[in-house]
Design brief:
- The structure is a single chain.
- Helix content is about 80%, strand content about 0%.
- With about 400 residues, it is an all-alpha fold.
- The chain has one domain (about 5-185, about 205-390): MFS general substrate transporter like domains (Growth Hormone, Chain: A, Up-down Bundle), CATH 1.20.1250.
- The protein has a two-stranded antiparallel ribbon with strand order 1-2.
- Helix 5 (about 100-130) packs across helix 14 (about 335-365) and helix 9 packs antiparallel against helix 15.
- The longest helix is centred in the last third of the chain and has 49 residues, at about 245-295.
- The radius of gyration is 20 Å and the shape is globular.
- This is MFS transporter permease.
């Protein structure tokens, strides 16, 4: 089986999970009797677990070189953990269907195993793409296509008043991801460690204290975290505005279509702009998108704003992969990927998600204004990163 196809199948399966979970997991949690604050807590805890699980996995695989073995093992554990949501969701606490504590515990276990899967998969794909001159964006876009299909199917399921089916779809997608992880190839021999010796703390600290890497982490954290209200309460907010589940699924899908276009043509774009300037555009896009979402009610306006997902997520992610591929040595690439996953998309989003639950319960859609401010902060940090890139010269590596 060709390498691009094997890697594309992994992304397609993984984003089946995300296509169900991001738009409709809060709907399942709500059907189990959880309040807005409890939903925000469950989603935030999943992100806090990332902060521990992803760096541990990254350091281990950089020490051992066993990226693929870790990927297969962790995805298998995640599938088993997903099955535990079935009994957890049937518990009764204080008269409400579903046990908040039980769901919280399963979420912790599930994400301890599942959180590193995307980072390890991205790390393997970047190493393989670098060795064989593959286009990362065109491999990754199949994950976005899969997200569209899954979110559309989820919309149909929820529209049929079957929130339990959201969990069933999640379990199925997690099982498929575990199977496709077995198809992901090992990286070529030159990127495997020759001694298996532990990484020195000084080398990790050097990465963390690199000003460009810190600006990169800060910018990506602010921009990715600005999606917190959208991820946690976007579907619920649109339902409150009177939009149907089918329309909501289409809105989620539309944003990802813009993301697909970015991934398809992103290599040429990022060669021209560099990681810093592309991140700056993502931050500006977040400022516009969330400011508009806070006040938008009509479908045409929401649809126009959703197109900005190509910038706020797609451009930010592609810029992140570019920076890691071009600015980090191979023997620390998994650790760098882990720091990005744990701190930028993990801790930052966890903090934002924790605040989002309380904010949305009190001020509703106005909480999107806070997300807009985070996007602006990300744009400012990205501008500083772009300035350093400009003084350093063009990046030679291919994203």
């Amino acid at each position: 089986m060709p390498l691009p196809l094997r890697l594309s199948l992994f992304y397609a399966a993984y984003f089946l999970i995300m296509g169900v979970q991001l738009p409709f997991w809060p709907v399942w949690l709500q059907s189990r009797g959880l309040s807005s604050e409890q939903i925000g807590t469950v989603l935030a805890v999943a992100l806090w677990v990332r902060i521990i699980a992803i760096p541990v996995a990254g350091v281990v695989v950089d020490r051992t070189g066993e990226r693929r073995r870790a990927l297969v093992a962790l995805s298998g554990v995640a599938f088993v953990a997903s099955l535990l949501y079935l009994p957890a969701g049937e518990l009764t606490v204080d008269g409400a269907t579903g046990g908040f504590v039980a769901i919280l515990l399963v979420t912790m276990l599930m994400n301890a195993a599942f959180s590193p899967v995307m980072n390890l998969g991205d790390n393997l794909t970047l190493l393989i793409a670098r060795a064989y001159q593959l286009d990362y964006g065109r491999i990754r876009l199949w994950g976005s296509v899969s997200f569209i299909l899954a979110s559309g199917l989820g919309g149909v399921v929820v529209a049929g008043n079957r929130p339990d089916s959201v969990l069933h779809l999640l379990i199925l997608a997690t099982g498929l991801t575990a199977l496709t992880c077995c198809l992901v190839p090992r990286p070529p021999p030159p990127v495997m460690p020759s001694t298996g010796t532990p990484l020195k703390t000084g080398r990790i600290m050097a990465l963390m204290l690199d000003p460009s890497f810190l600006l990169f982490l800060g910018a990506t954290a602010a921009i990715q975290s600005s999606h917190a209200v959208y991820y946690a309460f976007g579907t619920l907010h649109w339902r409150e505005l009177g939009h149907s589940e089918a329309v909501i699924g289409a809105l989620w899908a539309e944003g990802v279509v813009a993301e697909i276009v970015l991934f398809a043509f992103g290599t040429a774009v990022i060669r021209r702009l560099g990681a810093g300037r592309l991140l700056m555009l993502a931050g500006i896009g977040a400022l516009v998108r969330w400011s508009g979402t806070a006040v938008a009610e009509t479908l045409p306006t929401l649809a126009a704003l959703q197109l900005l997902h190509g910038l706020t997520f797609g451009a930010a992610h592609l810029a992140a992969m570019r920076h890691i591929a071009s600015a980090v040595p191979v023997d620390r690439s998994a650790t760098a990927q882990a720091l990005y996953g744990a701190l930028a998309t993990g801790m930052g989003t966890a903090i934002a998600m924790t605040l989002a639950g309380a904010a949305y319960a009190r001020i509703g859609a106005a909480s999107y204004h806070v997300m807009a401010a985070m996007g602006l902060a990300g744009a400012v940090l990205a501008l500083a990163l772009a300035s350093r890139e400009r003084h350093r010269g063009p990046e030679p590596a291919k994203a």
